[in-house]
Amino acid sequence: MESSGGIRERVEDYLAAIYRLRGGPELPLSLTALGEYFGFSPVSIHEMILKLSQQGWIHYYPYRGVTLSAQGEAVALALLRRHRLWERFLTDMLDVPWAEAHEIAGALEHAAPESVTERLSTLLGDPVSCPHGVPIPPSKRTYIDTCLRQVPVGARGRVTRIAPESGDVLRDVQAWGLLPGCQITVIEQQAAEIVVQVEERLVSIPLESANVIWIEVL
Amino acid sequence: MESSGGIRERVEDYLAAIYRLRGGPELPLSLTALGEYFGFSPVSIHEMILKLSQQGWIHYYPYRGVTLSAQGEAVALALLRRHRLWERFLTDMLDVPWAEAHEIAGALEHAAPESVTERLSTLLGDPVSCPHGVPIPPSKRTYIDTCLRQVPVGARGRVTRIAPESGDVLRDVQAWGLLPGCQITVIEQQAAEIVVQVEERLVSIPLESANVIWIEVL
DNA sequence: AAAAATTATAAGGTACACCTTATAAAAATT
DNA sequence: AATTTTTATAAGGTGTACCTTATAATTTTT
Ligand SMILES: [Mn+2]
Ligand SMILES: [Mn+2]
Ligand SMILES: [Mn+2]
Ligand SMILES: [Mn+2]
After folding, report:
1. Distances (CA, A) of B81 to B8, B56, B58, B200
2. Total structural domains in chain A?
3. B110/A108 touch (CB, cutoff 8 Å), yes or no
4. Distance CA B76, CA A115 (A)
5. Is A158 in the same domain as A213?
6. One domain, residues A161 and A113
7. pTM of the prediction?
8. pLDDT digit string, tens, across residues B63-104
9. Is B165 a residue whose pLDDT tops 70?
């Protein structure tokens, strides 16, 4: 229901706001500027900043401001990319007025996973700027992957990643010879497992494990 | 930021779930069935049901279950329409796998306003069923309107509604002769007001009022 | 009618992200 | 150096929507 426990919406919005408002990567952004942007009280901003700092998304220099950590910047860029792609979709394909698109994209950016937004980028012809002229940050991943559980029978693909990682699954994946990069074909979908072909071998994968194996369908 | 105070996401999800799970309009749906659907504890479901009942979205018959009020059913149908249109978009235009589309649409359905979803319906050719074969409830409104504030200079249109309503604005709207149904042309956008032509007259509308006047651009 | 099962309610708790008021600390200005 | 302004922190509160444990009321089954 609730998007399965990724990064919270507010966290993403704060990180992207810091990216948008800051003067440069090393210039701390004052909490006052953030407070004005969001229209929240200084105390609330401060509270949230402490949390973001504890969680490693930002660096907080009291009385000076905040900068993004490497992790935080990655999240901000990913969000801004999704934001601007949705803006393009709204204005280019749905004829939503320019001024409205920004606000609506502010919600859509959190509602669709990155994989969907990458497909959207393809549909739009991989635009490089939003309707307001701002550059769209490039995608980091060069592939689009799908959870093995969702790959239709008969499809060929490449294992891209095991995520979320857990020791048990990683051991199984290794035993099955399903390491990232290897090519597979989905042979059969059963009630409790999925049969895939890896090179000459057939492997039966419990659905639970299939949930964390990601495939780029080729 | 947070979509300006409409119906809360959870309220919409509960109402649509009741619609989906019920046997018929008059057959009460047991709280147990709802609890199983959401995976929440019986106490939590009960708590939420009391709130929804107090707010008039549902009728609660203790020990028997809940039915939707007329209002509640309208919300459920609107949400299911948005849900199924987004599913169609995901599968038809983005090639998102069938099984994934449902879950993603479960978030998108709340993120885009009805007006945007109606434009999406047009783009998709007004489909009548979702990718899983379920009928898409029809749209109640036959027009798509835009807030006057967003209508570009030069556009012609028809006043559709004043919303949200407030006594002061309604009086002004009447004085200006801008009642629903009348035709207007946007003449000029200034810092604090918008000038529109109504028949032979020019009217200056403060931006504040322009926010609650809705126009079907023709 | 009694026992068992289901459903409701009471009581207390959690996380999140906002709020206000008051005080303390640091920085900037005079 | 003293004053003013800005920024931080402490303390207490709100609403939403979940949780558990325990008890009460009702319905269903025996
Ligand atoms: Mn946002
Ligand atoms: Mn933009
Ligand atoms: Mn939903
Ligand atoms: Mn469907």
Report:
1. 17, 22, 20, 41
2. 3
3. no
4. 28
5. yes
6. no
7. 0.78
8. 999 999 999 999 999 999 999 999 999 999 999 987 789 999
9. no
